[in-house]
Amino acid sequence: MSAREAILNRARRALADVPDVEPVIDVPVVRPAPAHDRPHDEVVDLFHERVADYRAVVTRAAPPGAAAAVTAALEGRTPIAGDGPLRILVPPGFPDALVPADVEIVHDGPDVALSELDRCDGVLSTATVGVAETGTIILDHGAGQGRRAATLVPDLHVCVVRADQVVPGVPEAVAALDPARPCTWISGPSATSDIELDRVEGVHGPRTLHVVIVGAEPDPR
């Protein structure tokens, strides 16, 4: 008797007194359509959902309300200095119309030291692409997006993503990027977990990510 037959015979003997069970009838599972098969407004909704899954704060605004949404993202923050207005880092090329009026603006540039970035309460930026299926924001550090350190050192990152920048998946995102430019891919606020799965945020970057999606507001239904 082969080893295979010996194992099967042993299994048959072990199951000899087990009653027969009626077969389970498979119930068809209705899965949502892949992101690339959805209308664009549903793709943006999926992006909203997936970004929020990463514990980021997400707000939606029509273009006329974008500035108010950015201002609201800063409300309730306590300045590092303890008094006075919030110190907000603004990279070159960020739209002036979206910068709140009641903050101290720190204009970023290569001559701004990391210690100065650490004294900022937050940073504003735009983005290059938003990926719906993964809830990822991609910066290529062009106009309005700042250098890599600018969006890693401050404790709060408020990122403005236009609805028309949101693509269904990673292949579409890669196709939209310039391969000659270094990129930063952001999926939620910075976080890590130890062996006990205790989540700690703000270790490798901003503790709070607030994404403002500018475009058509979600259907209230």
Structure description:
By secondary structure, this protein is α/β, with parallel strands linked by helices. The chain has a single domain (34-214), classed as Rossmann fold. 21% of the residues lie in helices and 23% in strands. A 6-stranded parallel beta sheet has the order 1-12-7-4-2-3, sandwiched between helices. A 4-stranded mixed beta sheet has the order 8-5-6-9. The longest helix is centred in the N-terminal third of the chain and has 14 residues, at 40-53. The radius of gyration is 24 Å and the shape is elongated. The termini are far apart. This is LUD domain-containing protein. It comes from Pseudonocardia nematodicida.
The CATH class is Alpha Beta
- Give me the count of strands: 12
Average pLDDT level: 86
Rg over alpha carbons: 24 Å
Instruction: List the uncertain runs.
Output: none
Superfamily (CATH H level) name: NagB/RpiA/CoA transferase-like
Helix tally equals: 5
The name of the CATH architecture is 3-Layer(aba) Sandwich
Distance between the termini: 67 Å
Instruction: Trace the largest sheet across and list its strands.
Output: 1-12-7-4-2-3
List the helices and strands in order.
Answer: HHEHEEHEEEEEHEEEE
The computed structural class is alpha/beta
Q: Note the main sheet.
A: 6 strands, parallel
As for the CATH topology, it is Rossmann fold
Shape: elongated
Percent in helix: 10-25%
Proportion of strand residues:
15-25%
**In the residues, how many domains can be counted?**
1
Pfam family, one: LUD_dom
Protein name: LUD domain-containing protein
InterPro entries: FTHF_cligase-like_sf, LUD_dom, NagB/RpiA_transferase-like
Organism: Pseudonocardia nematodicida
